[in-house]
Task: inverse folding
């Protein structure tokens, strides 16, 4: 791989207007071209954008898809999410190592292929899956790996690896991917047929305040997880002082087990853009940004094409659909591999060319968001709901669902069930009903809302999915009777450790301590006092963390401590060594034992 | 005094000017809210979380949360003390803190907080991370073993010195303090007179050749606990 020249970097920076705020685009482009953002590149970028080199280094070191070290021209990122592990990713991983002759984290001697792990890439319903550069490979097996590696060695072109293309737009020229939509249950709102443009036309016939009132009457709440009333968010953003305003669509979908936005982006992007345009009109914004996770880069061509079609049809641009004074356009901002960037203020940081650190609140994005301008961040699905509400009316929208949670919710269902995929269920559906429908009636446990949600057991299966009971941004992962729920919890803690931004103490340190405590128990070295210690520690992390990540990251431990207590209790025993809870004496003696080349006489196990 | 905000901390009425944080108002009222990353004169950062208080039933960091009329703040409760001790414990085990040989001992805010909270030894297992020391600068060295990632140096260098010598790299547990140079501190424009050199709460940024000028036993927190200077105003 040839190194990038300073001239090439100059060109990249110039194409981004030498704008420091667009650092993400610059470093993404350099990484794509050179396979790394080296020290020399960092220096050159800083010079070009007139900023400190350490700022650039700070950003590069934050995102998983960026690296200072040279990567191969082909990077294989094998998803090692819990669901992939349940589907045999370990054998697949070994096959990759054997076929390539390298370990994970390494690059082949010829510098061509790098092998890495990635957290959930949004393909749990077709796991094990991997990203090979921007191409997605699904349903991996050891045989498939052999074929993939053989082909890569022959042609070094990931685009040539695809055989059978997926359904719907996946098969289109724009996407050209083997991914399946996996839409198993269509409901009235998202995947039903709809009258294109009707929603936007109706909105433009109303005043912005009337549009907001319509959304409020529909009682639409955010579909991204937090469930904040969308109408209220828009009202605040509209009321906030500022000449320029932004609406941002959160397409970062990173919560392990969530892939419903993937289906929307593939099949209903037009509806999503329509909802965004309505939102722009309602809050008084002239610009929209779609923050797309790097894992979904295979969808960018499709999204850009739809945006262009919309511009051509005057659904975007100057005086949208002839509405005087309403100018609105949308751009796509690529992420670079960071779950935390789904958090709305971290997302804004990332859009501004910064590390994906969340911001202090107040001020809230509605007051001071992107580049200090009032900003509304809305989930992909939320924006689709907006389009349908404006088309069909608030009363229609509230017809389905439960009392406190009107309408439907897309659920991404995976794990130990017969029919994984995307389902549109009315809010208020019982977990037991859902399990029946997906073919998972023998489930031992269900993860509702992803690792930041709750791991529930059979006792809770009559509870309902809605904002007032079991809330979820869309992830439902099912665990069969043979799974070890403590191991699963430990896996999810590992995810949070990897994905914490590291800004605040409880999340940066506490999650590591929680995981270590859990590992000790799993190794059979736990004692009864450890459980109270873990509970207290988990509560500190939950209570004192700065953002939603840390405020929910202890949930795998806390919810299993609550719902699978007997599993913990069967593993812990009174300690004989009289050590502090959570302290693992054998681990602590490891180094000394290696140096002494003998085992401790006193602490034998 | 119509532009003053009135609220309560643990039942005590406190006045604040508009725009003041809970922590600033508490300081003026002689009420000590423990803190580490916060420092007057620097933009509030909200990273250590030691200043966590309960505001109208919800946890907030006192150093970043603006005071508002009628808010009910809880500060000295059993629950919050537990959380704060746990956080201090975390900071100790996350790094390598050998207080007995540290030049900052007695002036260190982390150590002082531990003493104030009655922590003799952290209850979590030490992590013993591998961290680097940079002693290339003629007048100053960084010992990352003791860094608590509070960003005081980052903020002081950027906002007070107008330089931007420090910034963080990496994320999560791999986050560390870096300098604005290809590799070393000596290649930056950090100067011994910079504000950034004086703000470190722990012994991570240390001036050379002034070690132990004040003997241990006579240092800032050797005689009076941290926070007592604030509480003294209350007497
Ligand atoms: C760690 C973290 C990750 C998140 N990831 C996402 C995400 O991928 N997509 C999303 O829409 N919201 C995500 N959220 C929630 C957003 O912060 C925000 O609430 C949401 O985008 C608002 O849109 P909504 O009101 O339409 O749900 C995340 C929150 C946290 C704390
Ligand atoms: S809670 Fe975690 S992700 Fe959020 S700011 Fe703190 S360290 Fe970062
Ligand atoms: S070096 Fe000192 S001031 Fe800078 S972040 Fe570390 S502890 Fe804070
Ligand atoms: S002092 Fe408030 S978070 Fe550190």
Result:
């Amino acid at each position: 791989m040839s190194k990038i020249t300073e001239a090439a970097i100059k060109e990249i920076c110039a194409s981004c207007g030498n704008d420091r705020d667009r650092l993400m685009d610059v470093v993404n482009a350099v990484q794509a071209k050179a396979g790394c953002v080296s020290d020399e590149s960092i220096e050159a970028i800083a010079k070009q954008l007139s900023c400190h080199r350490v700022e650039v280094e700070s950003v590069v070191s934050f995102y998983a898809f960026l690296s200072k070290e040279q990567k191969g021209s082909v990077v294989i990122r094998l998803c090692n999410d819990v669901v992939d592990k349940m589907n045999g990713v370990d054998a697949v991983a070994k096959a990759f190592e054997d076929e390539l002759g390298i370990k994970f984290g390494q690059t082949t001697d010829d510098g061509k292929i790098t092998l890495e792990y990635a957290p959930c890439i949004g393909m749990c319903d077709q796991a094990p899956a991997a990203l090979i550069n921007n191409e997605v490979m699904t349903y991996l097996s050891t045989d498939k790996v052999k074929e993939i590696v053989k082909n890569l060695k022959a042609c070094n072109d990931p685009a040539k690896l695809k055989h059978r293309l997926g359904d719907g737009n996946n098969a289109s020229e724009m996407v050209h991917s083997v991914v399946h939509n996996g839409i198993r249950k269509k409901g009235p709102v998202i995947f039903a047929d709809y009258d294109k443009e009707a929603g936007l036309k109706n909105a433009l016939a109303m005043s912005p305040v009337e549009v907001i009132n319509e959304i409020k009457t529909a009682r639409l709440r955010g579909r991204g997880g937090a469930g904040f009333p969308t109408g209220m968010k828009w009202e605040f953003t509209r009321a906030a002082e500022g000449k320029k305003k932004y609406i941002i669509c959160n397409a970062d979908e990173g919560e392990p087990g969530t892939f419903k936005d993937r289906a929307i982006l593939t099949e209903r992007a037009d509806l999503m853009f329509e909802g965004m345009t309505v939102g722009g009109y309602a809050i008084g914004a002239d610009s929209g940004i779609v923050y797309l996770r790097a894992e979904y880069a295979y969808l960018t061509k499709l999204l850009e094409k739809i945006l262009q079609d919309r511009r051509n049809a005057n659904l975007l641009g100057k005086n949208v659909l002839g509405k005087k004074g309403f100018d609105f356009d949308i751009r796509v901002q690529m992420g670079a591999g960071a779950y935390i960037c789904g958090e709305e203020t971290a997302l804004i940081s990332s859009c501004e060319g910064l590390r994906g650190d969340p911001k202090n609140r107040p001020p809230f994005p509605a007051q001071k968001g992107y580049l200090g301008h009032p900003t509304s961040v809305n989930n992909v699905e939320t924006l689709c709901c907006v389009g349908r509400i404006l088309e069909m009316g608030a009363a229609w929208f509230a017809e389905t669902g439960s009392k406190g949670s009107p309408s439907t919710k897309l659920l991404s269902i995976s794990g130990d069930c017969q029919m994984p995929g995307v389902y549109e269920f009315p809010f208020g559906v019982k977990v037991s009903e859902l399990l029946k429908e997906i073919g998972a009636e023998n489930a031992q446990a269900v993860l509702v809302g992803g690792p930041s949600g709750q791991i529930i057991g059979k006792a809770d299966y009559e509870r309902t999915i809605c904002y007032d009971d079991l809330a979820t941004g869309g992830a439902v992962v099912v665990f069969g009777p043979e799974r070890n729920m403590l191991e699963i919890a430990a896996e999810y803690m590992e995810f949070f450790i990897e994905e914490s931004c590291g800004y605040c103490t409880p999340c940066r340190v506490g999650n590591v301590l929680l995981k270590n405590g859990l590992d000790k128990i799993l190794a059979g070295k736990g004692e009864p006092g450890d459980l109270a210690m873990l509970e207290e520690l988990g509560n500190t992390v939950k209570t004192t963390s700065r953002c939603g990540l840390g405020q929910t990251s202890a949930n795998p431990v806390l919810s299993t401590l609550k719902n699978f207590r007997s599993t913990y209790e069967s593993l812990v025993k009174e300690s004989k060594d009289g050590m502090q809870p959570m302290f693992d004496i054998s681990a602590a003696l490891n180094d000394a034992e290696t140096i002494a080349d003998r085992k401790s006489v006193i602490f034998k196990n | 005094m119509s532009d003053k905000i009135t609220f309560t901390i643990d039942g005590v009425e406190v006045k604040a000017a508009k725009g003041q944080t809970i922590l600033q108002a508490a300081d003026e009222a002689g009420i000590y809210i423990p803190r580490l990353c916060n420092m007057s004169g620097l933009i509030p950062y909200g990273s250590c979380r030691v200043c966590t208080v309960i505001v109208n039933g919800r946890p907030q960091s006192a150093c970043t949360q603006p005071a508002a009329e009628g808010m009910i703040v809880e500060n000295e409760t059993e629950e919050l003390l537990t959380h704060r001790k746990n956080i201090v414990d975390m900071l100790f085990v996350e790094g390598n803190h050998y207080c007995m040989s540290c030049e900052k001992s007695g002036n260190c805010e982390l150590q002082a907080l531990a003493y104030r909270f009655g922590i003799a030894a952290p209850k979590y297992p030490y992590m013993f991370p591998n961290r680097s020391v940079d002693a290339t600068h003629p007048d100053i060295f960084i010992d990352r073993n003791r860094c608590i990632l509070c960003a005081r140096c980052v903020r002081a260098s950027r906002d007070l010195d107008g330089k931007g010598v420090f910034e963080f790299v990496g994320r999560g547990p791999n986050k560390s303090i870096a300098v604005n140079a290809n590799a070393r501190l000596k290649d930056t424009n950090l100067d011994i007179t910079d504000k950034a050199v004086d703000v470190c709460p722990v012994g991570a940024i240390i001036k050379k050749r002034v070690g132990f000028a004040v003997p241990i036993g006579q240092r800032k927190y050797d005689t009076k606990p941290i926070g007592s200077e604030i509480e003294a105003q209350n007497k």
